[in-house]
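During the reporting period the student researcher (J.K.) took over the structure-prediction task from the postdoctoral fellow and processed the backlog of single-chain submissions. One of the processed entries is reproduced below for the supervisory committee.
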Amino acid sequence: MYRVLKKDALMVSFYGWNRADRFIAAWKNAGFSVVGHLVFAKTYTSKSAYVGYTHECAYVLAKGRPPLPETPLRDVMDWRYTGNKHHPTEKPVSSLQPLIESFTRPGGIVLDPFAGSGSTCVAALQAGRRYIGIELLEQYHRAGVQRLAAVKRSMCLPAANGDWLPEAA
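J.K. obtained the following structure tokens:
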């Protein structure tokens, strides 16, 4: 990610709390600076062990010295359960879109190298950004392509090939 990210830009990485030390070491080794930590509060428990897990976490990482956002995000944000209809670890578009709007410029490119069913790509599209999503598993790639097509139809946007999408598919 460090190699392909533009200079003076930000990256957001979700992580498993029990491996935070490994993630931080890898990010710093790659050249990133840790510049923020986000907690997404859930209204439900996703797993229980010694404690009930009712949050997701992400780090904000910088390459170079990105400009500060005009309105900094709160470090604790809401996480609305989507039912994980498209992917087992689906991220809510409503949680991703503020990150994209705050940390990127209109027309910029958002890259998600683990796109799953395309939540980041949908959030980028709705925020007026271009996107690149990479997903290895065909079933989730297909789900993401279908989601994006439906969002483009609802927004009345042309398809990637320049043709208008039909109203009903």
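The committee noted the following: The first strand starts at residue 9 and ends at 14.
J.K. will present the remaining backlog at the next meeting.
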